[in-house]
Design a protein that fits this description.
Shape: globular
CATH superfamily: P-loop containing nucleotide triphosphate hydrolases
Largest sheet: 6 strands, mixed
Strand content: 25-35%
Distance between the termini: 35 Å
CATH architecture: 3-Layer(aba) Sandwich
Number of strands: 10
Radius of gyration: 17 Å
Bound molecules: adenosine-5'-diphosphate, magnesium ion
CATH class: Alpha Beta
Strand order of the largest sheet: 6-7-8-3-9-10
């Protein structure tokens, strides 16, 4: 199966610190690729590099058959890369509906918010006119995912979506991620520290430590391969 995203040999520095060391990975349509690692190993830096939010020093990023490492974040988003940032980054003073419309910013102005987003996250429908800042953390996370889905991306990148969120909403988010993958028209890259959540969803996994990928394999082998111990705090 051809890769939706193919990342090869990325190096990245903050000042003199070598933050990403020769990172390579692939994501596939219809599959969830899980990236696990403790705090500070470089997960967010990697995801921001994929989106073009921080420049890479060397390496290549192919997305949907084209090299994108020189493209702007805007061009990558327009090309079909969707990003749910760590901490959600909801616009607190905008309404839920306006936040969703931000996800369509690079589409023609008449593009409607896809109604199916309200089926995936019914709570958003009830709260359309509330301000983003008035939502609970879990509701904001659902809004951040829906905002990323609004332009119908081919790749959805999520940075620790379970962080600080109550268990019932974590379950809902897990169900949505599985369903999106199973439809077969999207690849998902899920970055997590929460092992059980990641393991349940993983078709493929990678583990990072100090900026390097130290283990990878099929999701079904995670337990046998001792990944739980690798990321235990
Ligand atoms: N803007 C920045 N400037 C300098 N160092 C940073 C910056 N952001 C993160 N770092 C450092 O880079 C390393 C990786 O951070 P990060 O990518 O946020 O890790 P993770 O998402 O896995 O917790 C950490 O050592 C962190 O302190
Ligand atoms: Mg992070």
């Amino acid at each position: 199966m051809t890769a939706m995203l193919s990342v090869k040999n990325i190096h990245q520095y903050y000042g003199g610190s070598h933050i990403l060391r020769d990172v390579s990975l692939e994501t596939r349509l219809g599959k969830v690729t899980v990236l696990l690692g403790r705090n500070g190993v470089g997960k967010t830096t990697l995801l921001k590099s994929l989106m073009g939010l921080v420049p890479i020093k060397s390496g290549t990023i192919d997305f949907d058959g084209a090299a994108v490492q020189k493209k702007t974040p805007y061009e990558r988003a327009r090309g079909g890369m969707g990003f749910v940032p760590q901490g959600r980054e909801i616009f607190a003073r905008l309404t839920v509906e306006e936040n969703l419309r931000m996800g369509l910013a690079y589409k023609p102005g008449s593009t409607p918010v896809p109604p199916e987003l309200y089926e995936l996250f019914p709570v958003l429908k009830q709260m359309l006119n509330r301000r983003g800042g008035d939502l609970s953390g879990g509701q904001q996370q659902q809004l951040a995912i829906a905002r990323a889905l609004a332009p119908k991306p081919k790749l959805l990148i999520l940075d620790e979506p379970t962080e600080g969120i109550q268990p019932s909403i974590i379950k809902d988010i897990g169900r949505v991620i599985r369903m999106l993958a199973d439809r077969g028209d999207m690849a998902i890259l899920l970055c997590e520290q929460y092992y059980d959540f990641a393991q349940e969803l993983a078709d493929d996994y990678l583990v990072m430590e100090r900026g390097e990928v130290i283990a990878r394999g099929a999701g079904k082998d995670m337990e046998a391969n001792g990944v739980r111990q690798l990321v235990a705090i």
